[in-house]
Amino acid sequence: MLRSWAFVLLAVLLMLPLEGCWSRKELNELGIVVGLGIDKDKDGYEVTVQIVNPGQVSTRNGIRPEATPVSSFSETGETVPEAIRRMTTLVSKKLYFSHLRIVIFGEALAREGIAKPLDYISRDRQMRNDFYLVVAKGSKASDILKISSPIDPIPANNLNVKLANSDKLWAATGQITLDRLMMDLQSPGKDPTLTGILIAGNKRGGETPSQRIEPRAALKYSGMAVFRQDRMVGWLDENGTKSLNYLQGRVHQTLATAKCPQGGTLSANIMNVKTRIRVGKSGDEPVINAHLRIEVDLADAECKIDLSKNESLTWIRKQLEKKTLSVLEEGLEQAQHQFHADIYGFGRYVHRQQVGIWRKVDDWDEQFSRMKVRIYPDIHFRRIGTIQQPIEQVRRE
C-alpha cells in the first residue's frame, strides 16, 4: 500500500512542471490568413492579407448574402512585419499564418528585389513551407487578392489548387514552394523563377461576387518570371516555361501537337519525361548534353493517316521530336541571350561533373550566355487509343 501511494505522489510531482496548453488560441480569436500579397510602396512595403470569414464558409448556421467568404486588408510599413503589426488597427483578430496558401509579389517589387520580404517569410515560425509563391503580372499583389473566385469561396485556396493541377497537367506553369525558392537563391549555378498570375477580364467587376455563368474577371496563370539572383529581369512566354520544365525534368503530364502529312493536326499526351544532363567540354568551355526520354499516348488524330503502319507512327514520332526540340531551343534562346540567367540549373551540373571548369568561372551567368547546349529528345509511344484508325481514315475506306 505504501508503494502505491508513493507512486501516486511521484506522478503528481512530475505533472506539476507541465504547463498544459499554454499556447492555445481560441478559433474566434484568430484571423486565419490564406493569402499574402506584398507590393512596393514609397516608404517601404504595402502588405495585403486575405482572411477567411468562417461563418460564411460553413453552411451550418446559414450564409448571409450580404457578407463575403473572405476579407482583404492592406497596410503599409517600412518593413513587412511593421505593416502586419499596423494591421491590428484594422483587424480585430490576431493574424494567424499557419494556413497560408499563396504568397504574391507585385511585379514592381519583384523587379526591385524580393530578398528582404523573403527574410520575414522564411524566418517567421508561423509560416509553413507548403504554400506557393507567384508574381502578379502587370499589376499589384493587392489587386490579385481582391478578385473573387466563382468556384471556390476562398480565392487563395482556389489559386493554390489551380496551380497544383496546372503543374501536373500542363507544362507551362510551375509550383514553387518556399524551400525550392530559397535553395535556388542560395546555391550558385541556378537562377530562380516564379509563375506569373494576371487578371483576365474586368478587374473592377471581378472584385464583387457574381451569380453570372461567365465571370467578369478571372485569375489566370501566365508564363514565369525570370530572376537574376533576387531581382526579376523579365517574363518567359508559354514555350519558354515549357522548355524550363522539360529541361529540369519537372513535366508530369502535358500535351503536344504535330501536323499530319496530308493536312490536319494530331495531339499527343505527354505522360512521362525523364531528363538526363551530361556535361562535356570543348577546350576549357563546358558543353551541356541534355537527353530527354518522353513517353506519349496518342490523344487524337484530326487528319487522314494510317496508324496501322509502322512508318506512320515513325513519322509522327519524328514530327513530335522536331516540335519538342523547337520549343526547347526557343526557351533556351530567351534564357541565354535575352535574360542571361541560368534558370535551368546547368551550373549545378558543371559544379558536380566538371569541377575544374567550374573553379575557373568568375561570372557563371555570363558563361551560361555563351555556353553550347545540345538537346536530344527521344519520343516513345505507349498507346494509340481505343480505336485503330482516325475517323477520317475510316470514312475514306
TrEMBL record:
Q: Which residues form the Spore germination GerAC-like C-terminal domain?
A: 222-385
GO-annotated biological processes: spore germination
GO annotation, cellular component aspect? membrane
Keywords from the named record: Germination, Lipoprotein, Membrane, Palmitate, Signal
* Record-linked InterPro entries: GerAC_N, Spore_GerAC-like, Spore_GerAC-like_C, Spore_GerAC_C_sf
The compartments listed are: Membrane
Keyword Signal recorded: yes
Q: How does it sit in the membrane?
A: Lipid-anchor
Query: Spore germination protein N-terminal domain location, by residue?
Result: 24-197
In which family does this protein belong, per the annotation?
A: Belongs to the GerABKC lipoprotein family.
- Sorted alphabetically, which NCBIfam families does this protein's record hold? spore_ger_x_C
Q: What is this protein called?
A: Ger(X)C family spore germination protein
